Amino acid sequence: KQWYQRRVAITAGIAIETNAANKDIKDLFSIADRVTYNYFVGMKHMFENEFKGADKCLSFSFENCLKSCTSNKRKILICLIPVKMTLGFMPKVSILKKYNLCEFEDVVEAVKTGNIKLLNEAIEKNAAFFTRAGIYLILEKLKVITLRNLFKKIYLITGSFQIDVARFKTALNWLGLEDVDSDETECILANMINDGYIKGYISEQHKKIVVSKVNAFPKLNTFL
User: Fold this and answer.
1) What is the DSSP-derived secondary structure letter of residue 90?
2) DSSP 91
3) How far apart are CA 43 and CA 11, in angstroms?
4) Taking the model in full, what pTM does it have?
5) How far apart are CA 164 and CA 167, in angstroms?
6) I need a surface site. Which of 39, 158, 177, 208 has the fewest CB within 10 A?
7) SS3 of 200, please?
């Protein structure tokens, strides 16, 4: 079902983009049409992991959707929230309450605090809602950001640029990932370094991660 929803959104986005390619959309279409256009193109970008493009289009749709169209604004937010979170921007609790999106509350708290256990529980608890909305697979991507935030907390607590891999393993085990051993922890850290979430390298000899003294944890929207 998730893949079907992805294909529908991507196909709709491609069709709309193609039709708009030879037209000046601002001049030829009403604001309501442009809201719809940006919604589907934003969905297409989201499913293709083009989160900056998705943010731009979905934000336009949300900001220009009539205030009286609460259900439509809520529908847009369901996609916009995980997109913005992927880029490092967390929604306010007041927004979640206003649009009755309590399903995201624990997700937001988990990502902000680096609590991977809470994130797993929140996604599982509301799996049916997230699946129907077509964003379950997008939320899975928040796990790496949650781990990044956890590791950043450890870095700030230790106050050192050289941190034992064992510290990260202990934190993961304590948060419910009991089967994660030192080698897997090292692999997680290596992947995060390779993907740009952390600037540094792993010292195999000393079993430490050595992070950069400058901007060790880059802002997510600078490289995603």
Assistant:
1) P
2) P
3) 10
4) 0.85
5) 6
6) 158
7) strand
